Amino acid sequence: MLQIQGFVFNFASENTYILYNENKKAWLFDPGNMNEQETKAIENFITENELKIEKILLTHAHIDHILGLQWAFDTYKVPVTMHQDDKEILDMFQVSGMRFGFELDHINVDLEYINEGDELDFEGKKFKIYHVPGHSPGSVVYHNENQKFMISGDVLFEGSIGRTDLYKGNHEQLIDGIKNKLFILDDETQVFSGHGNPTKIGFEKQYNPFFQ
Q: What total of structural domains would you count in the chain?
């Protein structure tokens, strides 16, 4: 059985997730830790639970989801998994930081690219990859059908969807992707979003105002 631990980090109240199993293997999603206190919180959890980080995965590369990426890569020394269409966003990290008044170093990590239809294996647990652009060009969702949950990043929220007024955003594309790729899944599928509380596919189909 996979367990999920969430952390709320940085100026944007971004959700960073650690996924782990009984064998102490773990995946780290969207490391958004931006200061010593936040980094300590995630380090302590990993240490206390004796976890081994085997993958670092991005739902997308907006600044609030990658503020701890260089730290994560340097610390755990595993490649970063993401969609190639967000490589340009990743490369804009320093420029994005300036807009928020941060002086940031260029991110230098090893990358592994994933695409629509790929599957990732977590010790026998399969994760399907859905490419759902619109919030960012390379936004992806990681879906575990067996345990009925997904890590959705900023694609779908409780009662909302990701912003589409950012660089290379596209509202129609995002709506279409959610309808045709996510809303066809089991209604009981839990959605662990990039901000805010978890929700369920069935609830969003019925009550999300963007789909009424």
A: 1
Residues of the chain with pLDDT under 50: none
CB 163 within 8 A of CB 154: yes
pLDDT in tens, 25-80: 999 999 999 999 999 999 999 999 999 999 999 999 999 999 999 999 999 999 99
Output the CA angle 39-199-60, nearest 5 degrees.
Answer: 50
Check which CATH number belongs to the domain holding 101 and give it. Answer: 3.60.15.10
Query: CA 89: distance to chain centroid?
Result: 14
Strands (E), the chain: 3-9, 14-20, 25-29, 52-57, 80-83, 111-114, 119-122, 125-131, 140-144, 149-153, 156-157, 160-161, 190-193, 199-200
Whole-number Å distance between alpha carbons of 117 and 112: 15
The reply to whether the predicted model has a pTM over 0.90 is yes
Range of the domain at 54: 3-211
DSSP summary character for residue 79? P
